[in-house]
Write a structure and sequence with these properties.
Length: 249
Amino acid sequence: MLKICRQLCSKQFLRPFSIAGVIYLLVQWTGVSTMVFYMTHIFRDSGSSIDASMAPVVVNGIRVVAACFSSVALCFVPRKHIFCASALIIAVSAFSLAVSVKYLDSSALPLAAMISMFIGHSLGVVPVCQLIASEVFPMSCRSLGTGLCVSIATVSNALNAQLYHVILQYLGFFGTFCCYGGIAVFMAIYGWIIIPDTRNMSLAKIERTLCAQDGNQTGNTQPGISIIGNIMPNNRPTSREDSGLPKPT
């Protein structure tokens, strides 16, 4: 237990946790988790004339398609860019849903906002979060870091579901989704600042890069030196005399 506490308080753990852990936390408060639990009620409260029972079918069907395209998008678009763009899509969708309820009488806009919100969530936010959590933590605390990130996301998801009606009571539908949109905008800005570019980098190189930024780089983790090169001694024999072998007759 003491060893785990020391790891949690070490700079080696806190640096990657400030990247992956904070993003995992912010994602749960952008309104997407609320949509998963209360999609039918939210769609009905939005005032749309479309059948509320059809909204989960349409939205989740498009969500699956967006998730399938996420792996293709990540091959061509930098992770930071696709994450921030997806976060802004979620923000615009939340603001659009709030505005449509308060100022507009549109039957199609709430459904379109929900669809675009889940597209942004499945296309760029969830895949990048999972990739970052599996990459930025060093090997010594990777299991602890990824497990803690998932635990924080799960607890935040449950709290969001429990507190939604309380927030809705105090802020109303317009204020609640404006808050969700504001958190999504902050998440996009934070992701643009904090997410490292790890394309075409091995896990060992990512660990060396983050350690070098923290000033913790050691002599055995110099860029460009392989593991085999570090293991092999530098005073290898270069001749038979040096190795102690007899000369050929």
